[in-house]
Amino acid sequence: MPVQRLLPTSEATDLLALTREIARDELAGRAAGDEVAEKFPRDAFRLLGESGFLGLPYAEEHGGGAQPYEVYLQVLEELSSAWMTVGVGLSVHTMSCFPLAHFGTDEQRSRWLPDMLGGDLLGGYALSEPHAGSDAASLSTRAVRQDDEYGITGAKAWITHGGVADFYTLMARTSDDGPRGISCFLVDGSTAGLSAGPPEHKMGLTGSPTTPLYFEDARVPAERLVGEEGDGLKIALAALDSGRLGIAACAVGLAQAALDLAVDYAKQRTQFGRPIIEFQGLEFLLADMAAAVQSARASYLDGARRRDAGMPFGQQASVAKLVATDAAMKVTTDAVQVLGGAGYTRDFPAERYMREAKVLQIFEGTNQIQRMLIARGLK
Which of 26, 35, 78, 364 is catalytic? Predict the structure, then answer.
């Protein structure tokens, strides 16, 4: 049964119905095969673009869908329940558009944002480096101003859509002034001097390419600086607050898919003459899974509604990311247990869900970092 949702408008209800249709008819059936083949579904993102999904939370004047964040996140959840590579990819693209949408000049937004949101282009977010992950302020990729352009040199790591993105939102160092020496750039994916390394061999999300990026005196026009020099870390952290809500929604979608699979299997599998869902030990396990999914959904919706209301939501974003991704790990692991031996095989998607869940606790700020941020907000 579809998730029962409280949506703010009839337009949102229609949008979620379309999302379910695309998820069911275009994504779910091919997810397992493409993940095994490690095939990036670029055509799926083109379909989402044609359907107006690549700019949902942004202004109509720039080609966006002008949807509340709480609606956009529920779209993410539905897509992720069918195929995590697509859900996470949409979340990363949306976060990659955030700096220009919120910190760019009117001229920059008018020039570049419509194409970024229009459906043909796909973005990547280039913040992490081999030695600057959780400690983002220590990044060393350097951008040196030379007349009307910057020469960028350095390496980025763990870049979703690396090598296939049409543009990257890049954080690079423009001075040695610590956290205040980082700036934000919008970099065309075809820029000379920019290249991607081989894709990482990952335990999950194998359909989504994750690569290092290398900048060898890559020339980026000065007009592609977003905000002022030195604003980069502030911009990056603001984007991550919204992006963490996106990952929380993706995690809930994955957990919901695992719960649905476990319930369906438990209804059909019989032992000792009756369906295993009738045994109390399994009933309680499924009940805990359902409670975890619903609680996680409530946490990301709380953060989204605060964001939509113009209220501070950074701590709620960290809570949502922590709660939802831990829930996804627990629920997917329990789904494998419900299916027993069958859950450990590729005949069912439970093992894939479990593998995909793990990275959700790691990227866009590890859950240890989220605990640190939440505790900081209590002081």
Answer: 364
Which residue is it, tokens 């951008």?
143
- Phi then psi for residue 297, to 5 deg, are -60, -45
**To the nearest 10°, the Cα dihedral for 340, 345, 350, 352?**
150
Of 83, 77, 96, 84, residue with least CA distance to 165: 96
HSE-up of residue 64 (Cα within 13 Å, Cβ side): 22
**DSSP bridge pairs for 252:** none
Nearby residues of 21 by Cβ (< 8 Å), 6 or more positions away: none
Catalytic residue check, 78:
no
Q: For residues 110 and 266, what is the distance between their CA atoms, to the nearest angstrom?
A: 53
Report the C-alpha gap between 77 and 70 in whole angstroms: 11
Token output for 317: 């974003």
Q: What is the pLDDT of residue 283?
A: 97
Does the pTM exceed 0.85? yes
Residues of the chain with pLDDT under 70: none
Q: In this predicted structure, what is the pLDDT of residue 239?
A: 97
- Please give the C-alpha separations between residue 131 and each of 79, 142, 162, in angstroms, as whole numbers: 33, 14, 18
What span, in angstroms and rounded, lies between the C-alpha atoms of 96 and 236? 10
Phi, psi of 163 (to 5 degrees): 85, -15
pLDDT at residue 133, as a whole number: 86
Q: Which residues pair with 160 in a beta bridge?
A: 210
Cβ 331 vs Cβ 317: under 8 Å: no
